[in-house]
Amino acid sequence: MLVKKAYKFRIYPSKEQETLIAKTIGCSRFVFNRFLGQWNDTYQETGKGLTYSSCSSQLTQLKKEFVWLKEVDSIALQSSLKNLADSYTRFFKKQNKAPRFKSKKNQVQSYTTKETNHNIAIVNSKIKLPKLGLVRLAKSREVEGRILNATVRRNPSGKFFVSILVETDVQPLKKTDSSIGIDLGITDFAVFSDGHKMDNHTFTAKMEKKLRREQRKLSRRALQAKNKGIHLFDAQNYQKQKRKVARLHERVRNQRDDFLNKLSTDIIKNHDMICLEDLNTKGMLRNHKLAKSISDVSWSAFVSKLEYKAKWYGKTIVKISRWFPSSQICSECGHQEGKKSLEIRDWTCSICHKHHDRDINASQNILAEGVRTFHMA
Ligand SMILES: [Zn+2]
């Protein structure tokens, strides 16, 4: 099966390359905003939008008026226009809100360029990009497949990244004849029907504490600047702290992503059928007391990774009904013991006297219910 995969690497542009990246981002934004303005006017007057091709020929004219547009990667400017046309199409289909003007102050600044005639390529430990030439790349894994495009990003902490989108042929994985149920837990991140538990990433908890502390410091710095009548943009201490917080966020995100990638790949490799609960209900349940934004994001990211990997490698994901009382049933004899409050971590079945760990029992019920619904469908 042909699938699209994205690779993200950090890049280390030289000073000149950094300047050119900044210029390209600026020009892409300029093109986007300029045509968005036109597009909005036309929409207000006629109820219709413009077309990509009419804007594209206008862009050629625009370059004669603003010659500095010629200094940067022309495909990036075309992509910016394409991006605008696509978001307008989605807007007309009521799939998203109307596109908004891009700001210099957006957290992440980026531009996208398309592959044509090998203008984007990996050359040893460098990446070749249009206009920039070879940029040093922290290549943590091999890029496999046909490169479709590349997005160059500058994040708030001042680091540069490239995301390379490729098209590649993936082969289904060997069948294992094994199925597993997963209970996305509260005390543990995930509990498996084979009895093992994945703890709620201790590293995230640690990082979170640190993050909160640094964030408080950031608020203090903002207040100090305000009291002194300094604009935040010029407040050095504030800006320094802001970069520190951004770096921490990034580290948490990366660690989480690595963790979830490894975990989901392992599960997909080892099992043919993966049974899970509907996430929405759980998310809502948790939101009151236990909501930790980080683990919530992790859950949905984890499930989506499992879903696309299952599709790639020929495995099956079964989501069970949100009303299924996974923690109330005895997985041994099927007796339904009734609701149990969250602090009850283990219990004994009144009928068969089997002693249960709450979450392992739940995941075993999820597995049984998943297998049952799968064979019914
Ligand atoms: Zn029982």
Write the layout of secondary structure elements.
Layout: E1 2-12, H1 15-46, H2 52-65, H3 74-92, E2 109-114, E3 121-123, E4 126-129, E5 133-138, E6 146-154, E7 160-169, E8 179-184, E9 188-192, E10 197-199, H4 202-227, H5 236-270, E11 273-277, H6 279-287, H7 293-313, E12 316-320, E13 346-348, E14 355-357, H8 358-376
Parallel strand pairs: 8-11, 11-12
Antiparallel strand pairs: 1-5, 1-7, 2-6, 3-4, 4-5, 6-7, 8-9, 9-10, 13-14
Bound molecules: zinc ion (ZN).
Question: Mind explaining what this structure looks like?
Answer:
- This protein is of the alpha+beta class and 377 residues long.
- It has two domains: 168 residues, no CATH class; 154 residues, Nucleotidyltransferase, domain 5 (2-Layer Sandwich).
- It contains eight helices and 14 strands.
- Strand 4 and strand 5 form a beta hairpin.
- Helix 1 runs parallel beside helix 3, helix 2 runs antiparallel to helix 3 and helix 4 runs antiparallel to helix 5.
- The two termini are 25 Å apart.
- InterPro entries: Cas12f1-like_TNB, RNA-guided_DNA_endo/Transpos, RNA-guided_endonuclease_TnpB, Transposase, Transposase_put_HTH.
- In the N-terminal section; belongs to the transposase 2 family. In the C-terminal section; belongs to the transposase 35 family.
- It holds the Pfam family OrfB_IS605.
